[in-house]
TrEMBL record:
This is ATP-dependent RNA helicase. Its EC number is 3.6.4.13. SUPFAM superfamilies: P-loop containing nucleoside triphosphate hydrolases. Keywords: ATP-binding, Helicase, Hydrolase, Initiation factor, Nucleotide-binding, Protein biosynthesis, RNA-binding. The keyword ATP-binding applies. One of its GO terms (molecular function) is RNA binding. It comes from Sipha flava (yellow sugarcane aphid). Residues 38-66 form the DEAD-box RNA helicase Q domain. It comes from the Eukaryota.
């Protein structure tokens, strides 16, 4: 058996990495989205949402927030992976809250979480960020 064969025959696989498409083993992000926004004020967010963001204690967006909030708001499909504690929950929460029409009294977003504990943590973040909306 040579390097390009498996027990089941020839293989086109060149590596064993099975992470998200567009990201290599080292965590390097491949994206066609070039815009990086280094402060919340330049994201054209609702004033009430900005108050919630600053009230929550954020001063400057994290790397994931700088790159993912705008494409989410603009309706692009986004796959974002980052280490724990980097602001992923706030990233999608801000994106969702920006798109919410507070004059509509109906469900406008659904967030799925794998555990009740995580769902409750996400709920607290969404409520805090949306406090002034």
């Amino acid at each position: 058996m040579n390097a390009n064969e498996t027990k089941n025959g020839p293989s086109n696989e060149t590596n064993d990495y099975s992470g998200p498409p567009g990201m290599d083993v080292g965590g390097t992000i491949e994206s066609d989205w070039k815009e990086v926004v280094d402060n919340f004020d330049e994201m054209n967010l609702k004033e009430e949402l900005l108050r919630g963001i600053y009230g929550y204690g954020f001063e400057k967006p994290s790397a994931i927030q700088q790159r993912a909030i705008l494409p989410c708001i603009k309706g692009h499909d986004v796959i974002a992976q980052a280490q724990s504690g980097t602001g992923k929950t706030a990233t999608f929460s801000i994106s969702i809250l920006q798109q919410i029409d507070t004059s509509l009294n109906e469900c406008q977003a659904l967030i799925l979480a794998p555990t009740r504990e995580l769902a409750q943590q996400i709920q607290k973040v969404v409520i805090a960020l949306g406090d002034f909306m």
